[in-house]
Amino acid sequence: MKSIGFIPLRKGSKGIPGKNKKKLLGRPLFCWALGEAIASQLDAIYIFTDDNDIITFVHKEYHWTDKVKTVKRSEESATDAASTEMGMLEFVNGLEEPFDILCLLQATSPFTTSVDINACLDKVRSGANYDSALTVVNTHRFTWYEDGTPKNYDVFNRPRRQDFEGLLIENGACYVTTSSAFRESKNRISGNIATVQMPEDSLTEIDTLTDWKIVEELLAARLKTKKQSNRITHLILDVDGVFTDGCIYYGAEGELMKKFDMRDGMGLEILRQYNVEVMVMTSEDSQIVASRMKKLKINDVFMGVKDKYSLLSRIVTDRDLSFSNIAYIGDDVNDMANICAAGWSFTPANATMPIKNHADVILQNNSAEGAIREACDFIIKYNNRYE
Q1: Residue 227 predicted with pLDDT over 70
Q2: Which one-letter DSSP state was computed for residue 359?
Q3: Burial zone of 160 (CB within 10 Å; 0-12 exposed, 13-18 middle, 19+ buried)
């Protein structure tokens, strides 16, 4: 059964302007759902948007997979008054390729994982006569009617949490339906509906800036649930503000020079002698950086990367690693997700404060002044316990 993902994104957003492109832990909001969709059992994922910037970004950042496609949505389906179902109908009616299952994913639910998506798909594909499935949260909160009467418990026999089944609440993250059910009902879920439970923190959707701050902290905490109990096998580094002092010298013809520290290069050479692979990922596309990495004999150099967490996740999967095998050095907000997710994260003494708040180790040295060498020494000593 062919299953396709559908992520609707509008250019306009009144609550949080530019919400879908706004960086959550250093990566655009919609990338959290998209990245998990790519890792799921979905056969294809369609970004349905009226925002040309998002379309350009997707084509550039996700060229490595043929699962992701973009479709330009009409102005009518992208207004404040347009429903999600209106967008889904426009998309399905314009889609030429046949499909059996449609999965709606909401970009405002960044807690959605590939496991959640697959669980919804499995419900509909199970042969148990489910036409649709949606994600829910089991909450143990007590609810009330406006007239002062309780909805779900007896005030004179207040149950203990462990004795209270609670309520299943729709969290708006993932909806799966068969093609036939959707075409008949014109609704995201219909017929015989199954539920898939997600953790309670996923109940927080992003509609306000307060929601944004809460979700960012919760998401950072989730990424940090990593085990620092494995040998570090890979060191991944940002460039500007890590290898360099963060300054770029420009002339009339463009970038002229960057400052690097020779001690950092020696530290990386020694580290590789201890069988730790060194990789570089940077959002810049610089010939100077390419030349320096060639001089350092670093072969895995990824330049022009805007969604660094997506690349890190792909590296972990493709090379059969664990995040706990990874050490990462970054200095600014576009490194945030990787700083939170890596088994060990380092940041130079002159890094930005948001990164310092999340890094495992704040190095004593500044970037381009021995910070990388210091991190290399730490890794060598740390790995000694596994020898």
Answers
A1: no
A2: -
A3: exposed
